[in-house]
Amino acid sequence: MPDRARLTFALTLHDAIAPDRTRNACWSPHSVAGALALTARAARGGTRAELTRLLGDVDAVGVEVDGAEFAVANTLWAADGLPLEEDFLAELADRPGAAVRPAPFRDDPEGARKLINADVAETTRQLIPELLAAGSITDDTVATLVNALYLKCAWTAEFPEHDTADRPFRGAGEVPTMRRTERVRHAHRAGWQAVCLPAHGGVEAVVLLPDDELGGTEGVPEVLDALDWRRVELYLPRLRIGMNASLAEALRRVGVRTLFTPGADLTGLSPDPRLYVDDVVHEAVLRVDEQGFEGAAATAVTMRMVSFTPEDEPALVVRVDRPYLLLVRHAATGAVFFLAQVVEP
């Protein structure tokens, strides 16, 4: 049974990240949770409490994805001379793709930025070539925690390419839309239709189509709990979507505030009490076509110092022809790899 805590985290933060339902958005709850979970291990006192309240029981250590291309990296980039706590390094070592690497933040901040970006680009198969923009790393940056992931899955049953055609999508005119008919898990409840599309590696994509306008995420857990098998004729747009954004303001909205102030306590990472988080930068890219889907994401937590400068069954027709949500998750654990808000496919 998928972990409800992972879904709760994803939906809670999505409402803060993408409050404007008239714009596209795409992010990776799995990557953000991985970076924030490590940050929580580095935090103490009230700083840690705010993070753990948001994360709940989400276990960001990792999930097994066999039969698909899947890569994860968890890297701590640290300035020379920054003392690091052994307990935190041991905690980091338990994460998939763990590494601790030096970065010349003080002497060559631009060089440090390029090092981090090149490492992220390698993990994400070049889908995210520049996570950190020019100027985001300065000479008073002392550490950056980075989680990066890449996922490429084929559908267990492909969409026939000859059935793809331009079809109407509310607010976006005609868009290339795929079509296939098969028995899949489906539910219609609490103002949503959900269609679950299985892929290799134990991964599934869940289309969440609202009955009316795309609004909040209330009712999503209920419709996911009601999924059951039936024959569905699904019309689904091809998708290419991406987003690069600071998550600091969204995190403040959901109660993570002390982390971004001089009052932050990150002494679990370093005994130096002056450390605080300057920003949480996130980028995600997701592509969906007839063969399957490919996605990449990366999250960087940058830190500074306060004073350091049945075949005959009638098919139910589901036309995804208006703004919707797309959730890509690990079927067994509920780990949410990607959550996309699609207004213009």
UniProtKB/TrEMBL annotation:
SMART domains: SERPIN
Serpin domain ranges (all copies): 9-345
InterPro entries in the record: Serpin_dom (IPR023796), Serpin_fam (IPR000215), Serpin_sf (IPR036186), Serpin_sf_1 (IPR042178), Serpin_sf_2 (IPR042185)
GO cellular-component term (any): extracellular space
GO molecular function, one term: serine-type endopeptidase inhibitor activity
Family: Belongs to the serpin family.
Name by which UniProt lists this protein: Serpin family protein
Taxonomic source organism: Saccharothrix syringae
